[in-house]
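Researcher: I'd like a structural prediction for the single chain below. Treat it as a standalone chain; there are no partners to consider.
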Amino acid sequence: MSETEAIEFPDCPIETIFSLIGHKWKILIIRDLLCGSKRFGELKKSTHASQKSLTTNLRELEDDGIIERKVFAQIPPKVEYSLTDIGYSLAPVLEAMAQWGTDYKQYCLLKAKIKQK
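Model: Treating it as a single chain, here is the predicted structure.
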């Protein structure tokens, strides 16, 4: 995108974040990169994404400025992915999602126990 092109975002800020990271693989990629830089193979193994899906999502995250790709000049080629500053700013969002997921699991377990009685 050129600097003169206007960026259009949805009116709703939740819709904006969802448009950027709403895909399953993107959330998992960001989750893994919060712990530090990772290579493609490490991300593929931890997310269980196909090579095509992972490549597509990494490119989109890079285009959106959420991650950066560093290529090392060596043979065989080495590439690492890491979060940018704006990518790291998503940490509280993912932490809130993780807490909600934990709370929801507990809610479901409690609900199942009550039904058994």
